[in-house]
């Protein structure tokens, strides 16, 4: 004889719920027809032995009395049993009222007590039932909250009112040892902390936002808990909205064993008060992720410093995720670790991307190395793309017309970026500190002399991304805002080793003026902050200025390289004209010697050449001297300059 199939938890939960509803049904039937006798009494509502089923767990978690339990079941019955509506109408002796009311519950259900109607009592405090419109509280229609209904039916889910602001955070399959240690520390703190309102808020601090969520999720998984993250920007602005959020989240924390991570990485000034107010009252286990500790919290707290994987851990991760391919990189793992400081997830994704693009095992080791390198660049772009302009790299050394000393300086900059791992790590110059290890440079010269192109050439040479940050847009008149804007840029760039080009440095760097008020003092602080971040930045940071003399010499001494871009002389201008038109552009009769008489820098030469090309294309002709002259007149007019006889004599 075959064994009968074992009842599943879902089936048992459904049976348990139906049995509880039947008890409430009998109570309504007795109230609707009292003269027909007591009938079959059955078990009194709320007296069935509790178990590991949804109804019992909910009642125990929120401390529902037997009467409150029956009221919840009464509201659930209308949704789950088609006959409950008619039974409610019969029990209230009014066919127009096929819905539950407090009046019906007080009259029909055993153990009735008025305190169950209070907004502070569990049914309304935790929004398990909703009171509809009506003149009297006791006569108003009642409805079970949809979240509670699904929970009782054994189909729990995150309340839809939370889904738009609280996002689930999956636990990573593994973490580097230092981060695994932090996750175990969090779990140990929770395991040893007292229950209830004394749960401490654990603050995960540090300048590596990408690693905090995985650490928190790993700690939750170790405790059999789920994790959701709430960004500071999504914290409800109003007090009533925050109160609703706290109650809805409180249900999730208790019944679904969820932990909330308050992500305050991008916390703004006006948001601080409401973020702290929410953090102080979040029920259950809670974490906060912030660059710096959230001071002034009136709640027990523990602060943990969470960092990116250290270089040794990154090497281990690279080799583990590259598998057999790691031996093909011929030592390039060291270069990856030196230039990119990625999280474990980013390293895993970069390896998967690169390996997925390898066409065959026979592909050259060099090609594999380039694929991995470019995958790292892609992983590091997401945060910085929102804060700065990424410049597409097209210029090479052959496009850069500069005197030999300047070209040598640029080559030295590229060499220092390449050789950082050897000099700082292998040869010990890195020491124990990070200040002064960044490679910083100032490119100074008139507009159009090639400063941006030089940065582009370096980025292309080093296979790194180039981001342009306009300091005139970053600088704010509000105290502290400039420093905050700069911090965002450097924090976002830190993991990718990108080249940062801070344009228009004159907007921030000027002659250090006498400190007359708080604005002057903060201006000097902001300059010092930028230089300090440049000195510790693991990539290359470049400042540009049109007027070097406007910068304070004290600031210049803190920069490793200063490259002066001179206005091009006639020979250099002729060389620029010789190279300015692409090989596919049809030209006829262009005399670069005469064109070099135009006393303009390379940027202006490019504008003239481009304008001339459009004029020739419109006339369906090759680019001729006449087109260039017309374009030059337009460009000079834009610059409010006049073409002189020395510039155009003999070919106008």
Largest sheet: number of strands, sense, barrel closure: 6 strands, mixed
The CATH architecture of the largest domain would be 3-Layer(aba) Sandwich
End-to-end Cα distance, whole Å, is 110 Å
> Shape from CA axes?
elongated
* Total tally of structural domains: 5
User: Averaged pLDDT, please?
Assistant: 85
Helix content: 40-55%
Q: From the alpha carbons, calculate the radius of gyration and give it in angstroms.
A: 35 Å
The count of DSSP E runs of length 2 or more, i.e. the number of strands, is 14
| Count of runs of 4 or more consecutive helical residues | 28
Polypeptide structure, described:
The protein is of the alpha/beta class and 652 residues long. The protein has 28 helices and 14 strands. The chain folds into five domains: 9-152, no CATH class; 161-305, Rossmann fold (3-Layer(aba) Sandwich), CATH 3.40.50; 311-379; 397-564, Rossmann fold (3-Layer(aba) Sandwich), CATH 3.40.50.300; 570-648, Helicase, Ruva Protein, domain 3. Strands 3-5-6-7-4-8 form a six-stranded mixed sheet, sandwiched between helices. A six-stranded mixed sheet has the order 9-11-12-13-10-14, with helices on both faces. It has a two-stranded antiparallel sheet with strand order 1-2. α12 (269-281) links the parallel β6 (258-263) and β7. α9 packs across α10, α13 runs parallel beside α15 (344-357) and α17 (404-418) runs parallel beside α19 (451-462).
């Amino acid at each position: 004889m075959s064994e009968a199939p074992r009842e599943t938890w879902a089936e048992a939960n459904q049976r348990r719920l139906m049995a509880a509803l039947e008890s409430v049904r009998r109570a309504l039937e007795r109230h609707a027809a009292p003269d027909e006798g007591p009938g079959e009494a059955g078990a009194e509502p709320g007296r069935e032995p509790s178990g590991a089923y949804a109804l019992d767990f909910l009642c125990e978690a929120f401390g529902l009395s037997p009467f409150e339990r029956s009221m919840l079941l009464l509201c659930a019955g209308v949704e789950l049993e088609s006959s409950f509506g008619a039974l409610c109408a019969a029990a209230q002796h009014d066919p127009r009222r096929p819905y539950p009311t407090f009046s019906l519950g007080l009259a029909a259900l055993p153990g009735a007590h008025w305190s169950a109607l209070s907004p502070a009592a569990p049914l309304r405090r935790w929004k398990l039932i909703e009171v509809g419109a009506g003149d009297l509280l006791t006569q108003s229609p009642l409805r079970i909250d949809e979240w509670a209904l699904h929970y009782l039916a054994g189909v729990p889910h995150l309340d839809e009112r939370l889904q738009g602001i609280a996002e689930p955070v999956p636990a990573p399959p593994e973490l580097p040892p230092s981060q695994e240690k932090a996750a175990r520390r969090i779990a140990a703190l929770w395991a040893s902390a007292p229950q209830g309102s004394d749960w401490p808020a654990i603050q995960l601090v540090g300048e590596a936002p990408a690693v905090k969520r995985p650490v928190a999720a790993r700690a939750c998984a170790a405790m059999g808990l789920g994790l959701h993250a709430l960004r500071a920007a999504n914290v409800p602005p109003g007090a009533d909205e925050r109160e609703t959020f706290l109650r809805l989240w409180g249900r999730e924390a208790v019944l679904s064993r969820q932990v909330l991570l308050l992500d305050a990485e991008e916390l703004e000034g006006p948001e601080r008060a409401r973020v702290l107010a929410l953090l102080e009252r979040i029920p259950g286990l809670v974490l906060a992720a912030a660059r710096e500790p959230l001071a002034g919290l009136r709640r027990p707290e523990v602060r943990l410093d969470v960092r990116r994987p250290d270089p040794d851990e990154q090497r281990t991760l690279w080799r583990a995720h590259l598998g057999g391919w790691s031996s093909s990189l011929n030592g390039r793992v060291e270069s990856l670790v030196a230039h990119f400081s990625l999280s474990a997830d980013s390293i895993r994704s970069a390896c998967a991307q690169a390996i997925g693009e390898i066409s065959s095992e026979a592909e050259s080791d060099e090609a594999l190395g380039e694929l991995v390198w470019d995958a790292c660049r892609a992983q590091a772009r997401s945060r910085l793309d929102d804060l700065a302009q990424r410049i597409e790299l097209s210029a090479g050394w052959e496009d850069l017309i500069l005197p030999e000393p300047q070209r040598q300086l640029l080559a030295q900059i590229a060499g220092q970026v390449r050789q950082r791992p050897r000099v700082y790590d292998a040869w010990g110059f890195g020491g124990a500190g990070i200040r002064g290890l960044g490679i910083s440079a100032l490119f100074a010269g008139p507009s159009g002399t090639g400063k941006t192109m030089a940065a582009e050439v370096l980025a292309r040479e080093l296979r790194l991304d180039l981001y342009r940050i306009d300091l005139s847009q970053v600088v704010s008149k509000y105290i502290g805002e400039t420093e905050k804007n700069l911090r965002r840029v450097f924090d976002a760039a830190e993991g990718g080793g990108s080249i940062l080009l801070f344009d228009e440095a004159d907007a921030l760097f000027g002659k250090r003026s006498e400190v007359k008020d708080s604005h002057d003092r903060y201006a000097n602080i902001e300059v010092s902050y930028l230089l300090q971040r440049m000195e510790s930045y693991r990539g290359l940071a470049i400042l540009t200025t049109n007027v070097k003399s406007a910068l304070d010499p004290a600031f210049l001494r803190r920069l490793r390289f200063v490259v002066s871009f001179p206005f091009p002389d006639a020979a250099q201008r002729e060389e620029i004209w010789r190279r300015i038109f692409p090989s596919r552009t049809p030209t006829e009769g262009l005399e670069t010697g005469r064109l070099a008489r135009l006393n303009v820098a390379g940027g202006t030469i490019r504008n003239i050449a481009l304008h001339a090309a459009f004029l020739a294309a419109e006339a369906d002709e090759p680019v001729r001297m006449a087109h260039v002259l017309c374009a030059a007149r337009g460009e000079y007019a834009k610059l409010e300059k006049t073409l002189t006889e020395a510039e155009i004599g003999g070919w106008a």
